[in-house]
Specification:
The protein is an all-alpha fold. The protein has one domain. 51% of the residues lie in helices and 0% in strands. The protein contains 7 helices and no strands.
Length: 160
């Protein structure tokens, strides 16, 4: 849900398509990835669900000028559809003095190469936010039995 909603927002809002937003997004994703690893949830499938968002954040940060940059973008965008990568590049704004605007020629070269490399695909731009997958959390039984617990009367929970 987090990955698909954030990616859809990125695709729909031009104000999120900048290098600085890419840096912030990549940092926040890395925090989630670290938490998943710390909790032993590498095999849950959540890391794979974050991959399109990781690639979108990296796409915002990569240089977008030369022919070598086209190759870097094409090797980077393995999970994003060509339509999604092109939409992010088209939304990339011109920030005064900080970043160069991505030329339409550059975008068309990237689009053509991505379509040659990965095929036309279904043309999906937005990600389905209603798709949820189960996360299996490890269960550790408590060494205490419930009948051994004493709930103080001051808590005012007589039903326990």
């Amino acid at each position: 849900l987090v990955s698909s909603t954030t990616l859809n927002d990125l695709l729909l809002r031009k104000d999120m398509c900048s290098s600085s937003c890419g840096i912030q997004l990549r940092y926040k994703i890395s925090q989630v990835q670290q938490w998943l690893r710390a909790e032993g949830l590498q095999q849950s499938g959540a890391l794979e669900e974050l991959e399109p968002l990781v690639q979108a954040a990296q796409l915002l940060q990569v240089k977008k000028v030369t022919e070598e940059d086209v190759q870097a973008i094409c090797s980077l965008c393995t999970v994003l559809t060509p339509q999604q990568a092109v939409k992010i590049l088209q939304a990339y704004p011109l920030a005064v003095g900080l970043e160069e605007h991505v030329s339409s020629r550059f975008i068309s070269i990237v689009e053509r190469q991505l379509q040659d490399q990965y095929g036309e695909g279904p043309g999906q731009l937005l990600v389905n936010t209603s798709h949820l997958f189960p996360v299996h959390l490890p269960f550790t039984a408590s060494p205490l039995h419930l009948d051994e617990l004493h709930v103080p009367d001051t808590l005012n929970v007589p039903f326990l």
